[in-house]
Structures are given as C-alpha cells and as structure tokens.
Design a protein that fits this description.
- This protein has 251 residues and is mostly beta strands.
- It has a single domain, classed as Acetoacetate decarboxylase-like.
- 10% of the residues lie in helices and 50% in strands.
- It is built from 4 helices and 13 strands.
- It has helices at residues 37-40, 111-120, 172-178, 215-218; strands spanning 19-35, 49-50, 57-71, 83-93, 99-108, 125-135, 138-147, 154-164, 182-187, 190-197, 204-213, 229-241, 244-245.
- Strands 1, 2, 3, 4, 5, 6, 7, 8, 9, 10, 11, 12 and 13 form a 13-stranded mixed beta sheet that branches.
- The protein is globular, with a radius of gyration of 17 Å.
C-alpha cells in the first residue's frame, strides 16, 4: 500500500477533465461481502493494492440501469444507450495512492456495448441476458452470461427498498463502499485510470434481500458467505473522463 492514500470522500472531488461519456445510473443496488485481503489481492494486476476497511477487503455485486448514454455532448444513443448492467467489483489503490474501482466483470445485454467497451475502454464487459422488473418498492434483477463464458454464470437479486438514509448518518463503511470517484483497468500490461464524476449518492436501506449468483465465483473468488451489506440509490447523472496511463512504480 502506498504510504499516502487519498481520503474517502462522500462528496465528489474537483473534476476538471473533459468528459468523454455522459449517462444516468438508475435504481442501483449495492450488495457487498467481506473477504480477506489475501484472497482478493492475487486477482489484481501488478501495481494495484486491494483497498481495505479496518483490514477487510470487500467485493460488490452491483445491478442497475444504465440510461441515456451519450458520447461527449451528443444526444443520447437510441436503444443502444439504455440497458441493464450487473457488475462484480472490488476496490483498489494505485501506486500514487489514488482510490478506484476494479471491475472483475460487467454484464450487459448489448453486443455492441461489449465490443466498444472492451476495445476502446479495456473493460471486461460480457454479453448476457439481463433484466430488471420493478413493482413499487420491490425490485428483481436477473442475468445469465452468454459470451464469452462457457459455464454461463448467472445472478438473481430480489429486494425491497426501505427508508432513506440522511446524509449525516451514512456510516464510514457505507461511504467507503459507495463513494468511488474513479475506475482502474489494464491494457497490454499498463494500468489505466479514469475519473468519474457525479453528485453524492442518495442512499436508502434495503430489506428482504434474496440473492442467488455464480458470477462472483466466475471471477475466481470463493462463494460469498452470509448476507450482504445492502444499500440502494435511485441514481445519479454521471460523467466519465478519458483514461490516463498510470506511471509505473519504477518511473
């Protein structure tokens, strides 16, 4: 771990980059399980350290609706720019101490999105059947991967949204798990960093959680044990900057 690590901030830091993508992330659920750092660390590329809270690493299963994806200041992309996404992630620190999200997988029902995201943004997107059904405060997300994974990992998540959590009462752990303002990925052995900007998350409690999944195991992790730490957000507008190469530790 670098000697100086940036703080966890509930509110977004300054954002001065040019946005390459704009979108709305809607009806997110945050499901997280605790893992020993030594289980997660071997799955990360050289140069990244798994981020921990009180010595514990966390792995998240995050379903949501991606809406109105736009490139730069162009209008939203019809049909192609709105879809369900379900990702598996953890949290990392780069050699300079910047915190970010590391994705093990991102499943979406759009082949073109998979191709573009893998080629242009070097992100591990997969093509899957993915749906979201809402009945008032009850939500049901489902996905089953079709490519490029022969075992067809899947996930089903059912839950009910509870009361809003006032900003002043959001705990340190929940802030750690949700307030992430960048992503990390890798292309040809080089780490890439991309800043993400959006308002502070409005958070709600989650009740009556039922999850059956095999996508976490497909990432190379042991099956999670016990119930997840669960949160919900109705969503935020998001901007994402172009990826920057992370200087190696030797530099």
């Amino acid at each position: 771990m670098p000697s100086a690590v940036e703080p966890v901030l509930a509110d977004p830091p300054s954002y001065e980059r040019r946005s390459v993508l704009r979108q709305h992330w809607s009806e997110l659920a945050f499901f997280h399980w605790a893992y020993a750092p030594e289980i997660v660390q071997p799955l990360l590329p050289v140069g990244l350290t798994v981020d921990t809270f009180d010595g514990t690493a966390w792995v998240g299963l995050i379903p949501f609706e991606m809406r109105n994806v736009r490139v730069g200041r162009t209008p939203p992309v019809p049909w192609l720019g709105t879809f369900v996404e379900i990702n598996v992630r953890t949290y990392v620190v780069d050699p300079s101490g910047r915190r970010a999200v590391w994705f093990f997988s991102l499943d979406v029902p759009r082949s073109a999105v998979v191709a573009i995201a893998r080629t242009v943004f070097a992100l591990p997107y997969y093509r899957a059947r993915a749906t979201h059904i809402r009945d008032e405060e009850h939500h049901r997300y489902e996905m089953r991967r079709g490519w490029p994974h022969r075992r067809r990992p899947s996930a089903e998540m059912r839950f009910r949204v509870g009361d809003a959590i006032p900003d002043a009462t959001v705990g340190d752990l929940d802030c750690f798990l949700t307030a992430r303002w960048a992503l990390m990925t890798q292309r040809r052995g080089r780490l890439l960093y991309g800043q993400v900007h959006h308002p502070r998350w409005p958070l709600y409690r989650v009740e009556d959680v039922h999850i059956e999944e095999s996508v976490i195991e497909a990432a190379g992790l042991p099956s999670p044990t016990g119930g997840p730490r669960a949160l919900y957000s109705p969503g935020v507008d998001v901007e994402a900057a172009w990826l920057q190469t992370v200087p190696s530790e030797k530099q």
